[in-house]
Amino acid sequence: MNIFRLAGDMTHLASVLVLLLKIHTIKSCAGVSLKTQELYAIVFATRYLDIFTSFYSIYNTLMKLIFLGSSFSIVWYMRYHKTVRRTYDREQDTFRHWFLVLPCLLLALLIHEKFTFLEVLWTFSLYLEAVAILPQLVLLQRTRNIDNLTGQYVFLLGGYRGFYILNWIYRYLTEPHFVHWITWIAGLVQTLLYADFFYYYFQSWKNNKKLQLPA
Amino acid sequence: WPSSHSKDEL
């Protein structure tokens, strides 16, 4: 464990807590894309299949349970909670996210480190996570008023993978044979997708005005 | 944390 990875995990945890806080306290998921939440639930479900077979540390297992639990409960809230589900703007959140799942699955079947069931699904989860934010970014561009909590959620979610990139550089420099091109490229693509969001987020923060993405 | 492969990451 290094400080970059810890910072990344804590940022990721914070993004999930911000979203759960928003949904649980103000009982609203306005501006939040259910499609992105469903993709993330699939990402964690396929990434953490080894939760019962391999144990690294209490921290590792605990965080996996938190990410699994939070992502599925957010999907449950947005789909079935009587109050929250009414605040979900179904008409705007129309990104066909299944068009993201299939190509990622095909790519994982083509490009992976080992051709085993767990490894292919794990690789699939990496590719899917890289693009999972797209429905959310599209929704943000459609809904003009981005409330602070949603903006913070996306910002933290984008930041965590940036810390992971620093972690991979650190581990490459300090651990022999630590080379994982698939993870690195997927993580880089994921972070780059946030680039324009980050730009407008910082602009709104600097000029102290509401966050608005160009249509 | 042990193991050099990246499965020990979240």
Explain what this protein looks like in three dimensions.
The complex is a heterodimer of chains A (215) and B (10). With 215 residues, chain A is mostly helical. Helices cover 69% and strands 0% of the residues of chain A. Chain A contains nine helices and no strands. Chain A is globular. The N and C termini of chain B lie far apart (13 Å). In chain B, 0% of the residues lie in helices and 0% in strands. Chain B has no helix or strand. Chain B is flat and about 15 Å long. With 10 residues, chain B is largely without helices or strands. The A-B interface holds A 1, 5, 9, 12, 50, 54, 56-57, 60, 63-64, 67, 122, 164, 167-168, 175-178, 180, 183 and B 1-10. Chain A: This is ER lumen protein-retaining receptor. Chain A: Belongs to the ERD2 family. Chain A: The chain crosses the membrane at residues 55-77, 98-115, 121-140, 152-170, 182-202.
Task: Write a short abstract of this structure.
Chain A is 69% helix and 0% strand. Chain A is mostly helical.
List keywords for this structure.
heterodimer, A: mainly alpha, 69% helix, globular, B: 10 residues, little secondary structure, 0% strand, flat
Largest interface: A-B, 22 and 10 residues
The helical percent of chain A reads 55-70%
Tally of individual helices of chain B: 0
Largest sheet of chain B: none
Question: Measured on Cα atoms, how large is the radius of gyration of chain B?
Answer: 6 Å
Low-confidence region ranges of chain A: none
- Portion in strands of chain A: under 5%
- The total of beta strands of chain B comes to 0
Q: End-to-end distance of chain B, in Å?
A: 13 Å
Report the uncertain regions of chain B.
Answer: none
